[in-house]
């Protein structure tokens, strides 16, 4: 099993495990098939300069099945129980649950599943592992109370690699489709600055055959949203995040956006561990790569690059809270 940072042995203070949960069993609860077809960032209009620093050139996959019928039923029951902990996630989502893997052992073990991680590695074409920050594991989004609101606004994610799974039955939903824009986030920022949304002829709404199906996403590069419902209905999705094991590529994270959304005591500890893990890998590579004859400027530059994620984390932690980025009218960000 590929592990970046081990999951904590005990939940943080204030979190308690759900009682009477079924134990996650991959033989019973998973129904993985072959890797799905994918589209690349180049097909979305990104150039080589945009793609080269990223973890993978893959942009998005077709829907693929993750859960068996039994697994989908258990996850639906689990997410309904976790709804009691839902709260607004900044300026984007009215009802979401983060830190669910500290409350549900079933959700935790699903999100840490080596079988699913292997599938994600096959899709992305690079080795990945469950995200080093457990707050990014099993993120749950629920339908809004106001039908005029999108379930989630047009945005790109705070993390690079994830899947979006439909937990409630998508075949019965009145609207609320998951949608993504076939284009770059720079294009969407320009559209939003002009008071425009992504044009319908460049928006894709994947067809999810049923609950427990997901799509893999290069989440911080592909602009996407949960469209509004047209009638009141239960709509639940689950997002599970991953990290590329190759730490030489850019981090592609905006953890500062989570200040004020996640619990401080949990967020800063996880954030620090993530930055340390990134730097550890880069520094270890530097030990192996640096040889005699290197000059002061190059040595300093290599060290700066190795600890870049630590420096950014320190600066962002000290800078404090800001509104999460999205591309709704009047909030164009790139």
Topology:
Elements lengths: L25 H4 L8 E3 L7 H4 L6 E4 L2 E2 L3 H14 L4 E3 L3 E5 L7 H7 L2 H11 L3 E3 L8 E4 L9 E4 L5 E6 L11 E4 L3 H9 L9 E2 L8 E6 L5 E3 L9 E9 L19 H26 L6 H11 L1 H12 L15
Antiparallel strand pairs: 1-2, 3-12, 4-5, 5-7, 6-14, 7-14, 8-13, 9-12, 9-14, 10-11, 10-13
Class by alpha and beta content: alpha+beta
CATH architecture field of the domain at 26-246: Sandwich
Characterize the overall form.
globular
Please state the CA-atom Rg, rounded to the nearest Å.
Answer: 20 Å
| CATH topology (level 3) name of the domain at 26-246 | Jelly Rolls
Order of helices and strands: HEHEEHEEHHEEEEEHEEEEHHH
Number of distinct helices: 9
Number of E-state strands: 14
Whole-Å distance between the termini? 36 Å
Poorly predicted segments:
330-334
What portion of residues is helical? 25-40%
| Average pLDDT reading | 94
Strand content: 15-25%
Determine the CATH superfamily of the domain at 26-246. Answer: q2cbj1_9rhob like domain
